[in-house]
Amino acid sequence: MTQAIKRPFDVNAIRDDFPILNQQVNGHPLVYFDNAATSQKPEVVIEAMNRYYRETNSNVHRGAHALSDRATGEFEAARDQVRKFLNAPSREEIIWVRGTTEGINLVAQSYGRSNLKTGDEIIVSQLEHHSNIVPWQILAQQTGANLKVIPINEQVELDMAAFKSLLTENTRIVAVNHASNAMGTINPIKEITRLAHEAGAIVVVDGAQGAPHLEVDVQDLDCDFYAFSGHKVFGPTGIGALYGRKELLDAMPPYQSGGEMIERVSFSGTTFNELPFKFEAGTPAIAESIGLGAALNYLEQFDKAQLKAHEDQLLQTALKLSADVVGLKLIGKAPDKVSVFSFVVDGLHPSDMGTLLDQQGIAVRTGHHCAQPLMEYLGIPGTSRASFAFYNTVDEVEKLFAALQKIVKLFR
Ligand code: PMP
To answer: Domains of the chain by range and CATH?
Structure first.
């Protein structure tokens, strides 16, 4: 198979693709370091959605007219794009959802409620986003299952020895993230799926932070479900996808019901549509799906390893410069990380830090990052988090640290 020629990595040319980056905030050029919360959109994504509304807008699947045919074609082509992005075996295994949160809720309520019973066990980790905790807590309450938690070590990595000892013959579901939003830690999903499968459990991967930074191959990972959000992979909000293994999806009951997900409805009984439509009740987010397809198409021009290498360079620069900031403590020291730099500074509350950086045009996120159990475990109220994307530059990282030096001097 011939390898398509990739676009050479040129950060300045890439920045020109993202119109929002070129602006002043509080009198300074914007430095956008809140990419783990949501990433910016290239012009091609904005334009794909505009074009759809200008030229194609119509409902999908049912129309007996040209616009509907075109809308359906574009919408389903975007699903193919997602299949390719995840290297899923088939397009039937790609379910449109609003995002990671909805994907995980779908698995919990559809797979979970129909497969779990009292005494069964669900394993999550100390390192999870609330989206990968609360749906399992609710499922545990509904079914009488027990929730167990994989502890972390000092570097904020999963304690794999402890994970092995948590697995029992009662374990049904293991739900972990590919990469942590709060600390950046990359989790060993392949090893987790191997161990979980040996124990007879399925694995649900929260891919919200994996999809933007890592090569995702659901066949290689061998996971059973993988959920991600469009808005974190340079696509729009309101759309994401759930990959599920076909034999599991086939056996699962619908999650939501109504139009689109049925084959035939009568008052004596209803039959459901085939995959993936069985899980897609109601008019879908058509423009958003097309926007996400455009984002994945945009990403495909690049060698993902090159993007990751650039992000790693940004993180290494941050780690190096942070050593010179008095009172700064890096939180989460896993050697294998996506480009998330989470930190606290002695005597400065993270929310004050956020405001002070914003005054200098630097956007970071502060607080618990929807990972309160992790913060509680670490004994801190929260952190300041700079999360980098491939359109960020070393110069911007240097600006962050120049600003931090100023702030620390002011408060010393
Ligand atoms: N999991 C992780 C690791 C996340 O970072 C996020 C978003 N911050 C989510 C789940 C939830 O994603 P969404 O809000 O797009 O559904």
So the answer is: 11-41+303-411 (3.90.1150.10), 47-300 (3.40.640.10)
Q: Distance, CA 107 to ligand 1 centroid (Å)?
A: 15
Contacts of 145 by beta carbon, 8 Å cutoff, 6+ apart: 116, 117, 118, 119, 120, 121, 122, 139, 172
- State the pLDDT at residue 344: 97
Q: Is 208 in the pocket of ligand 1 (CB under 6 A)?
A: yes
Cross-sheet strand order for the sheet of 340-345: 328-330, 340-345, 383-387, 365-367
Query: Cα(267)–Cα(265) distance, rounded to whole angstroms?
Result: 7
223 catalytically annotated = no
Helices 304-322/394-411 angle, 10° precision: 20
Q: Does the CB atom of residue 99 touch ligand 1 within 6 A? A: yes
pLDDT tens per residue across span 21-66: 999 999 999 999 999 999 999 999 999 999 999 999 999 997 799 9
DSSP state of 345: E
Does an H or E element contain 139, and which?
helix 134-143
Using a 6 Å cutoff on CB, does residue 387 contact ligand 1? no
Find out whether the beta carbon of 236 lies less than 6 Å from any atom of ligand 1. Answer: no
Q: 242 alpha carbon to ligand 1 midpoint, in Å?
A: 13
Tokens found for residue 245? 């293994």
Residue 178, ligand 1, Cβ within 6 A: no
pLDDT digits (tens, 9 = 90+) for 253-307: 999 999 889 899 999 999 999 999 999 999 999 999 999 999 999 999 999 999 9
**Nearest CA residue ID for atom 4, ligand 1:** 208
The alpha carbon of 208 and the centre of ligand 1 are apart by a number of angstroms equal to 5
Question: What's the pLDDT at 260?
Answer: 87
Contact 208, 181 (CB under 8 A): yes
Please give the full DSSP string across 307-325, using - where no structure is assigned: HHHHHHHHHHHHHHHHTTS
Tokens at 66, concatenated = 């040209």
Selecting among 46, 199, 370, 375, the annotated active-site residue is 370
- Tokens linked to 90: 């088939």
Mutate to test the pocket of ligand 1, among 130, 187, 229 (most ligand atoms within 8 A of CB): 229
What's the rounded Cα separation, in Å, for the pair 342 and 319?
10
Report whether residue 181 contacts ligand 1, using a CB cutoff of 6 Å.
yes
Cβ–Cβ under 8 Å, residues 202 and 259: no
